[in-house]
Write a structure and sequence with these properties.
This protein has about 190 residues and is an all-alpha fold. It has 7 helices and no strands. It has a domain of about 120 residues. About 60% of the residues lie in helices and about 0% in strands. About 15% of the residues are buried.
Amino acid sequence: MSEPSNQPNLTPQFCFNQTALRDFLRISRGAIDDSIIQNLNALMKPAQMPWNSASTAGRQVRPGIRQPIDPQACRTFTNNVLFQSWQTRSDVLNYCAGVALDPNDPDLALKEVESAKERDRVIDERLDPYSGRYYPREARTELLANIIRNERSVEGIIRSRSWSIVSERCGDTGIGWEEALNTWRAEQEAHR
């Protein structure tokens, strides 16, 4: 069974390093969510009946009935691995979203100066039809905010898929992943 991801050292440099941020999210998702079926299969007990060669003598028309997973093992997995991993990724995304709101970003001031210069520039498009084009450079905080927005969207899709598989294999509790995660968070706060 996989272990939840360890939270990286959260600094603004980590957030602005797109490669490090995306690698952390990719590796965390790969270890837990992308391999959720294998993680759940690892929770199952070995077969109770010994192997019988007659079981392979004929073609199986309908798929075999899945062996149920022990409910306690499912709870342990979701509480100690799945939700813990989700919370770690949420903490990283929340921290980096806060960094993206930095009003003192030096790139933001540079962008404003460039925009002011561009407004004052005289353009004669008859001489150079491309001179009227201006592509303002995005400040690094704006780039980070876009990355965080995209990663949160991806996170929602991945969590929904993972939760549907957990619900199918461990028994559907009738609640969505957001409610289950919030319940787990409340329990964690109560134990502190």
